Amino acid sequence: MTTGDTTVLIVAGGRGVRAGGGDYPKQYRQIGGIPVIRLTLDRFLSHPSRMTVLVVIGAGDAEMFDAVAPSDDRLLPWVIGGDNRQDSVRRGLLRLADDPPERILIHDAVRPFASNALIDRVIAGLDHADAVLPASPVTATLKSVDDSGLVTGTVPRERLRAAETPQGFRFDAILKAHNLAADSGLSFTDDAAVAEWAGIPVRVAEGETGNIKLTTADEIAAADHRLQAEAALALGDVRVGTGYDVHAFGPGDTVAIGGIVIPHSHGIVAHSDGDVALHALTDAILGALADGDIGDHFPPSDPQWRHASSDIFLRFAVERVVARGGAIANLDVTIITEAPRISTHREAMRTRIAAICGLSTDRVAIKATTSERLGFIGRGEGITATATATIRLPFRAAP
Ligand SMILES: Nc1ccn([C@@H]2O[C@H](COP(=O)(O)OP(=O)(O)OP(=O)(O)O)[C@@H](O)[C@H]2O)c(=O)n1
Ligand SMILES: C[C@](O)(CO)[C@H](O)COP(=O)(O)O
């Protein structure tokens, strides 16, 4: 397949009357949060063959187009289109005529789902033909109907194909055909029809039923739902949980904070090792799962947790996420104490927590503050930590 010297002409000059019209044509409406024309442009600009793209826009649409167009040096300055699709295509072809490409793909701005494989099939077809039409078999039973609404017959569908775009052509051949068609005053709804009329053999390439043209408001709404659902599936069921813990200082000379042991003028009064950061994180993860709290799973009354290292609790919470097919997106802790100073231990804490949870350290944040000598923290009587955990569960995860 030869892919060099292929330009794409995207026609976006229509008013979208069948979709409801208005000042905001359908190619500028959003599906899945992105303007239709932007999706279409991205399809072609991201194609590996690095094609040049020319867009034909409606008179008065320049501001709308410039607002949504990507910045890419392969995107040529737009051309203003005509009163119908055929005229818009011809205006685009004429713009390219001074420095013509070898091959041209002509595509509707309102077909945002053309795949790379489909584009490849059309380009490959041009190695053996001057005109290539992607098309799919018609699956509906087709009826002809008279003006009174009576069925006059059933149309055999075996030889019928529904035409799609991008349609591919040798540039010189389709420009000539369009010029002849314009001179003759005939009108056609696609460029393959212009080629057929001009006597150019049109070869069919396998189309894609997903490569729909957004013609009606219902089709736009369905495409929007499709992309929203895909995005939601990719993102998963995102949940956020928060946690809080407090412990008093007491006799001793070390404190466990954030999974590491730090020398201090006091110890921590606690049933376990009293690591407020790991306890807050454990509760944040359990909170995101709506799975009780640390005390439910590790009751202080149970002697087996006496002096336990708190990484056991945190790992347990992480395993509850993994057991539901989920993953932790990030953990964020704030430690509030007058002393010891946290900043010098921050990286060691991040590394340790990341290791306990099986995360990369860039998903773990440790912050610290004092309470400005106010309250029990300010008097150095205790230490607290708050935490937030964001997790992603698959949809339809077991409750
Ligand atoms: N004067 C025109 C008319 C159509 N098109 C483009 O041709 C493609 C064909 O799709 P179609 O659904 O026919 O678009 P509209 O003409 O906008 O729709 P309608 O007929 O409902 O007004 C669209 O990308 C449309 O923007 C164009 O560039 N210039
Ligand atoms: C070019 C086209 O998309 C091929 O299916 C189609 O013909 C364009 O517009 P239509 O007026 O909705 O047929």
UniProtKB/TrEMBL annotation:
<keyword id="KW-0808">Transferase</keyword>
<keyword id="KW-0414">Isoprene biosynthesis</keyword>
<feature type="site" description="Positions MEP for the nucleophilic attack">
    <location>
        <position position="157"/>
    </location>
</feature>
<dbReference type="GO" id="GO:0050518">
    <property type="term" value="F:2-C-methyl-D-erythritol 4-phosphate cytidylyltransferase activity"/>
</dbReference>
<feature type="region of interest" description="2-C-methyl-D-erythritol 2,4-cyclodiphosphate synthase">
    <location>
        <begin position="239"/>
        <end position="399"/>
    </location>
</feature>
<dbReference type="InterPro" id="IPR018294">
    <property type="entry name" value="ISPD_synthase_CS"/>
</dbReference>
<dbReference type="InterPro" id="IPR034683">
    <property type="entry name" value="IspD/TarI"/>
</dbReference>
<feature type="site" description="Transition state stabilizer">
    <location>
        <position position="18"/>
    </location>
</feature>
<dbReference type="InterPro" id="IPR026596">
    <property type="entry name" value="IspD/F"/>
</dbReference>
<dbReference type="InterPro" id="IPR020555">
    <property type="entry name" value="MECDP_synthase_CS"/>
</dbReference>
<dbReference type="Pfam" id="PF02542">
    <property type="entry name" value="YgbB"/>
</dbReference>
<comment type="similarity">
    <text>In the N-terminal section; belongs to the IspD/TarI cytidylyltransferase family. IspD subfamily.</text>
</comment>
<comment type="pathway">
    <text>Isoprenoid biosynthesis; isopentenyl diphosphate biosynthesis via DXP pathway; isopentenyl diphosphate from 1-deoxy-D-xylulose 5-phosphate: step 4/6.</text>
</comment>
<dbReference type="InterPro" id="IPR001228">
    <property type="entry name" value="IspD"/>
</dbReference>
<comment type="pathway">
    <text>Isoprenoid biosynthesis; isopentenyl diphosphate biosynthesis via DXP pathway; isopentenyl diphosphate from 1-deoxy-D-xylulose 5-phosphate: step 2/6.</text>
</comment>
<feature type="site" description="Transition state stabilizer">
    <location>
        <position position="271"/>
    </location>
</feature>
<feature type="binding site">
    <location>
        <position position="376"/>
    </location>
    <ligand>
        <name>4-CDP-2-C-methyl-D-erythritol 2-phosphate</name>
    </ligand>
</feature>
<feature type="site" description="Transition state stabilizer">
    <location>
        <position position="370"/>
    </location>
</feature>
<feature type="domain" description="2-C-methyl-D-erythritol 2,4-cyclodiphosphate synthase">
    <location>
        <begin position="238"/>
        <end position="391"/>
    </location>
</feature>
<feature type="binding site">
    <location>
        <position position="379"/>
    </location>
    <ligand>
        <name>4-CDP-2-C-methyl-D-erythritol 2-phosphate</name>
    </ligand>
</feature>
<dbReference type="InterPro" id="IPR029044">
    <property type="entry name" value="Nucleotide-diphossugar_trans"/>
</dbReference>
<dbReference type="GO" id="GO:0016114">
    <property type="term" value="P:terpenoid biosynthetic process"/>
</dbReference>
<feature type="region of interest" description="2-C-methyl-D-erythritol 4-phosphate cytidylyltransferase">
    <location>
        <begin position="1"/>
        <end position="238"/>
    </location>
</feature>
<feature type="binding site">
    <location>
        <begin position="271"/>
        <end position="272"/>
    </location>
    <ligand>
        <name>4-CDP-2-C-methyl-D-erythritol 2-phosphate</name>
    </ligand>
</feature>
<feature type="binding site">
    <location>
        <position position="247"/>
    </location>
    <ligand>
        <name>a divalent metal cation</name>
    </ligand>
</feature>
<dbReference type="Pfam" id="PF01128">
    <property type="entry name" value="IspD"/>
</dbReference>
<dbReference type="GO" id="GO:0019288">
    <property type="term" value="P:isopentenyl diphosphate biosynthetic process, methylerythritol 4-phosphate pathway"/>
</dbReference>
<feature type="binding site">
    <location>
        <begin position="245"/>
        <end position="247"/>
    </location>
    <ligand>
        <name>4-CDP-2-C-methyl-D-erythritol 2-phosphate</name>
    </ligand>
</feature>
<keyword id="KW-0548">Nucleotidyltransferase</keyword>
<feature type="binding site">
    <location>
        <position position="279"/>
    </location>
    <ligand>
        <name>a divalent metal cation</name>
    </ligand>
</feature>
<comment type="function">
    <text>Bifunctional enzyme that catalyzes the formation of 4-diphosphocytidyl-2-C-methyl-D-erythritol from CTP and 2-C-methyl-D-erythritol 4-phosphate (MEP) (IspD), and catalyzes the conversion of 4-diphosphocytidyl-2-C-methyl-D-erythritol 2-phosphate (CDP-ME2P) to 2-C-methyl-D-erythritol 2,4-cyclodiphosphate (ME-CPP) with a corresponding release of cytidine 5-monophosphate (CMP) (IspF).</text>
</comment>
<feature type="binding site">
    <location>
        <position position="245"/>
    </location>
    <ligand>
        <name>a divalent metal cation</name>
    </ligand>
</feature>
<feature type="site" description="Positions MEP for the nucleophilic attack">
    <location>
        <position position="213"/>
    </location>
</feature>
<dbReference type="GO" id="GO:0008685">
    <property type="term" value="F:2-C-methyl-D-erythritol 2,4-cyclodiphosphate synthase activity"/>
</dbReference>
<dbReference type="InterPro" id="IPR003526">
    <property type="entry name" value="MECDP_synthase"/>
</dbReference>
<comment type="similarity">
    <text>In the C-terminal section; belongs to the IspF family.</text>
</comment>
<dbReference type="InterPro" id="IPR036571">
    <property type="entry name" value="MECDP_synthase_sf"/>
</dbReference>
<protein>
    <recommendedName>
        <fullName>Bifunctional enzyme IspD/IspF</fullName>
        <ecNumber>2.7.7.60</ecNumber>
        <ecNumber>4.6.1.12</ecNumber>
    </recommendedName>
</protein>
<keyword id="KW-0511">Multifunctional enzyme</keyword>
<keyword id="KW-0456">Lyase</keyword>
<feature type="binding site">
    <location>
        <begin position="293"/>
        <end position="295"/>
    </location>
    <ligand>
        <name>4-CDP-2-C-methyl-D-erythritol 2-phosphate</name>
    </ligand>
</feature>
<keyword id="KW-0479">Metal-binding</keyword>
